[in-house]
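Technical annex, item 7. During the second reporting period the consortium partners agreed on a shared format for inverse folding records so that results from different sites could be compared directly. Each record opens with the tokenized structure and is followed by the designed sequence. A conforming record, contributed by the partner at site C, is shown below for reference.
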């Protein structure tokens, strides 16, 4: 369900210009902050694969921010990715925001 909602969110962003500067915050409030920590962690483990398989340069910021907030909501320091997955994500996600954010998330 989360992934369907996230895909719809990204599709909407790609098809409609952002008129609300709070678009990302609103998505996080409505779809991530409502999760229990165990739910966020379960999604987080799947989100790593999603990030690799569905990489889209146009949505890179939103994908990295969703990762950040899923990790915060999961409230754990447990690893949720393999070294291979981490390497692939760091290879794919090269925008400035990603380069600054991913090392503190992964």
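Designed sequence (site C submission):
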């Amino acid at each position: 369900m989360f992934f369907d909602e996230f895909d719809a969110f990204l599709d909407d962003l790609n098809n409609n210009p952002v008129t609300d500067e709070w678009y990302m915050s609103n998505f996080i409030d409505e779809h991530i902050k409502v999760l229990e920590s165990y739910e966020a962690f379960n999604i987080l483990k799947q989100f790593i694969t999603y990030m690799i398989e569905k990489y889209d340069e146009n949505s890179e910021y939103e994908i990295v921010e969703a990762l950040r907030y899923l990790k915060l909501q999961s409230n754990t320091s447990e690893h949720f990715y393999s070294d291979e997955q981490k390497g692939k994500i760091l290879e794919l996600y090269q925008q400035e925001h990603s380069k600054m954010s991913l090392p503190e998330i992964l």
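The mean pLDDT is 94. The longest helix spans residues 37-53. All partners now use this format for quarterly exchanges.
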